[in-house]
Design brief:
Blueprint lengths: L1 H9 L4 H31 L12 H10 L1 H40 L1
């Protein structure tokens, strides 16, 4: 949501709509991301993929923590770490280029 707000400000688009659309798209994008994290965890732990059916109950959640939880949590940690490193490097490059561009514009004046 913070990223959507920042993007809306930078690109000068409607801020309330941008933030509201995050609430609409997150339920669509979260399942594939969570499943991908789970698959990464099963690869790292060298475990077979367990088939499961989601159920919105407290008992299902507690059982899942024991069965699919370790693979999901490890996969989430790995995916988040990789994404954060890539994001950091990308932002650093973009920031440096913008500073160089701003300095060049100042020296031309």
């Amino acid at each position: 949501m913070i990223l959507a707000a920042a993007g809306a400000i930078i690109f000068r688009v409607n801020l309330p709509i941008s933030v509201a659309l995050v609430w609409l798209t997150n339920p669509i994008t979260m399942p594939p991301i969570f499943y991908g994290s789970y698959l990464v965890g099963t690869l790292i732990l060298n475990q077979p993929e367990q088939h499961f059916v989601f159920e919105a109950s407290w008992s299902w959640f507690l059982e899942s923590i024991e069965t699919i939880g370790p693979a999901f949590l490890l996969g989430s940690l790995v995916c988040a770490s990789i994404a954060s490193i890539i994001s950091y490097i990308t932002i650093d490059i973009v920031w440096r280029r913008s500073v160089i561009k701003a300095r060049a514009a100042r020296t031309k004046k």
